[in-house]
Each structure stands twice: as C-alpha cells, then as structure tokens.
Amino acid sequence: MRTLDRLLIFYLFSFLIIAISITLTVASIATPHWLNAKFYPEDENGEPFRITYGLHEKCSSVTQSCSRFPELECVNGDREFCNIWRTTSFMMWLSLVILGPTVISYVTLIFSSRQKRESGWHMISLLLFFVVCVQIIAMAAVVHLLRTDPHLKNQNWKLGLSWGAATGSWIVTLGLLVLTIVVGLNTVRQYALLPTNVARPSVERPMRRTSTY
Questions:
Q1: Which single residue of 38, 126, 131, 136 has CA 20 to 30 Å from 105?
Q2: Mean pLDDT of 201-208
C-alpha cells in the first residue's frame, strides 16, 4: 500500500475520532451534570433530593426544574466561584470552536493532493494541541473549585457525567494528537530516505579509430 493510501485512510480514521471528541464536548456543554450532590433532610421521613450543576444551569430534584447558573451566585457575592465557573464554560465553548476548523482541515486534506496530505499534519497537530490544552484547563478549574470552595468541599459534592464526558473528549483528542505526530514524522522520514538522484548506467562509447598516414 502506498504512502498516499495510508495517509488517506489515516485521515478518514482521524475524522471519525474527532467526531467522537466533538460529540463528547457538546454533551458536556449541554447536560447539567458537571457537579452533583445528594442531600438528606433533617426530617427522617423526608426524601433525599439531588442538585446538579451544569455550565449554564442548576437543576433540583425537589422542583424538577432548572434555573440559570451561576447568575445567582454572582449576585450573592461569590465572585471567585462565578468567575472560575464562567471561565470553565468559556474554555469548553472555545474548544468546540477550535474543533470546527479542525474538521474543515480534515475534510480538505481528504480531498486534497498528495503533497498537501504529506504536510497537512502540522496544522492538524497544532489545532488538536490547542483543544487539549483548553479542555484540560476547564477540567482543572472544576476540580479546583471542588477542593477549595467552602460551599462544595464541606458537602457531598462529586464530579458528574458532564465532567466525565469532557475528560473523555480531551483524552481522545490527546491520543489522536500523538498518533498524528507519529504518522506525520514517519511520513517525513520515509520521504527523506528516498534517493534524490538515481544513478544512470554508464554507456561505453566506442573508441574512435584514427588513421595514420
């Protein structure tokens, strides 16, 4: 199988992987399950209730409804929590925005010439690197809040499924980044080993007979 065919198959495979990463990212943004906690009322006859935090809304099992979040916390003066949470939301949306040009780059390379496929891994790797960095910052910010915020660390708050989906997204993207760099460097190495000048067989010229007088 030629290098061109291998690169085409790799980019098709990478396109499917990046689609999985986008799906996980969208799910983490859309679902309100970044943090969740189960509370038990003081009344023994009361039923426990659950509260979940999303990037944009907070949901309660008591009212069976969701409200905007963290707008209320900003009003009450908890500025640090509000700023960190909104930064997390911004980072996740930014990663989704970067994934857009990444998909366009994959589609362009799939339908491009051989030369563009050979050199296109540089731009792809750079975009994937940005996605991984941005999403790791978002994950770390939520973990920081869970460990340091007084409203969270003293209660039964845990990381939820939305945080897990975002974590899965950057892990998948990181794996694709490493694979892209390996394939790209291998392609460069293969073409560097190709001889630039092909030796031509020497042709013996017949000796010219000189006449003597």
A1: 136
A2: 53
Within 31-78, residue ranges assigned H as helices are 71-75
Asked whether 127 and 105 are in contact (CB, 8 A), the reply is yes
Would the pTM count as exceeding 0.90?
Answer: no
Look at residue 213 in the predicted model and tell me its pLDDT.
47
Alpha helices by DSSP H, listed for the chain, are 3-30, 71-75, 79-110, 114-119, 121-148, 150-153, 161-193
The secondary structure element, H or E, covering residue 52 is: strand 49-53
**71 within some domain:** no
Domain count, the chain: 1
Q: 């509000």: which residue's tokens?
A: 82
Give, for 36, the enclosing helix (H) or strand (E).
strand 35-39
In a domain, 151, yes or no: yes
Q: Are the C-beta atoms of 60 and 188 separated by less than 8 Å? A: no
Enclosing domain of residue 184:
3-33+77-191
